[in-house]
């Protein structure tokens, strides 16, 4: 039987606009086995995992477990030493304000993660909202490869060898991660602090991606999108990059994501390109409410998206959700369903607007998540 990744690759299912949505990522080192729902099915205290997941998801954040990669010979990574401290990372992915803070916590101190104020972190205080003990991370970019075979075998079969190769090559701080969405695009990679996700990578292409990330650039080949934005925002940003050739990671911001005129009675306007409400359908993502859209879609959904450059340029895009091609499973063992993708119908360049001088509000202002 074909795997979900093999079917998706054969169908050449589009990658753009399929990244998980998260403005903030909390990563907790947890060696050892992971279950399908790793936050509550691992050696991490299940009550703590469930509480972190609830509090994070309410404020545009995601929590995942990480561990050091297996060795290139296939042996497991470093074993957990009882009582050994755990590395934790908190990453914010906003353009122009992307950062990582890290801490080393004793195993019996992981409960202090309950003190994280995700609402404050999502506001203006940023790192200042963190408790004492969190320090700026100054190492290589974080390279997080999804390897949780209990969620989908493609992640383990394809992801673990990639993580091992990247760790052996150096130049990035490589970790295995429990889940970043999109099993069928395995092997998948998330880079932080920028938040760009990639799919269907081999070691050579992944190394090229990490070289670019270190230089502050965004390769668009194989890119699924920036996790800061929802699916239409991700697709629109990548379309503008392809249209203009803009490589700099922090040059573009998704200003608005609105239902297109014909669809405005069917959706809620978002004015910052960030995540839809919990349960909203996402194309190619992990939200299960998308099944309802698949079941009987009356017509393609459409969005109007505005993408801004830091030099004042803007582009207005119209996107539509299209369902075409042969059915494919979203993950191994799932029933095949219609494959949805986001199509860019048009890109219109707006009149150039010079950015405001320092200390003067821009007009119109950019609303950041």
From TrEMBL:
Biased composition (Low complexity): 277-290
Alphabetized InterPro entries for the sequence: Aim32/Apd1-like, Aim32/Apd1-like_bac, Thioredoxin-like_sf
SUPFAM superfamilies tied to this protein: Thioredoxin-like
Organism for this UniProt entry: Streptomyces cacaoi
Protein's name in the database: Sucrase ferredoxin
Top-level taxonomic group: Bacteria
Region of interest: Disordered: 261-303, 320-341
């Amino acid at each position: 039987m074909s795997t979900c990744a093999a079917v998706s690759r054969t169908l050449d299912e589009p990658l753009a606009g399929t990244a998980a949505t998260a403005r903030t990522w909390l990563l907790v080192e947890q060696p050892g086995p992971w279950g399908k729902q790793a936050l509550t099915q691992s050696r991490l205290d299940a009550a703590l995992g469930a509480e972190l997941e609830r509090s994070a998801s309410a404020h545009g954040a995601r929590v995942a477990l990480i561990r050091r990669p297996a060795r290139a010979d296939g042996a497991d990574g470093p074993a957990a030493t009882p009582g050994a401290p755990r590395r934790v990372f908190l990453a914010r992915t906003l353009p122009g304000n992307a950062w990582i803070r890290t801490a080393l916590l004793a195993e019996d101190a992981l409960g202090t993660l309950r003190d994280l104020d995700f609402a404050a972190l999502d506001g203006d205080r940023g790192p200042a909202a963190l408790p004492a003990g969190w320090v700026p991370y100054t190492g290589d970019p974080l390279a997080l490869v999804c390897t949780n075979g209990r969620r989908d075998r493609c992640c383990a079969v394809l992801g673990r060898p990639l993580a091992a190769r990247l760790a052996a090559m150096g130049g990035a701080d490589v970790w295995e991660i429990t889940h970043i969405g999109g099993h069928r695009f395995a092997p998948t990679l998330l880079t932080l602090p920028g938040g760009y996700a990639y799919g269907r990578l081999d070691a050579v292409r992944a190394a090229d991606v990490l070289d670019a990330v270190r230089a502050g650039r965004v390769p668009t080949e194989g890119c699924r999108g920036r996790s800061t934005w929802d699916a239409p925002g991700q697709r629109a940003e990548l379309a503008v990059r392809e249209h203009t050739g803009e490589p700099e990671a922090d040059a573009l911001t998704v200003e608005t994501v609105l239902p297109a005129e014909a669809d405005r009675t069917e959706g809620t306007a978002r004015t910052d390109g960030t995540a839809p409400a919990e349960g909203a359908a996402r194309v190619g993502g992990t939200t299960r409410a998308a099944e309802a859209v698949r079941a009987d879609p009356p017509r393609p959904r459409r969005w109007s998206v505005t993408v801004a450059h830091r030099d004042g340029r803007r582009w207005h895009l119209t996107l539509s959700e299209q369902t075409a091609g042969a059915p494919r499973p979203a993950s191994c063992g799932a029933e095949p369903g219609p494959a949805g993708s986001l199509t860019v119908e048009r890109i219109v360049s707006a009149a150039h607007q010079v950015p405001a001088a320092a200390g003067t509000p821009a007009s119109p202002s950019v609303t950041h998540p």
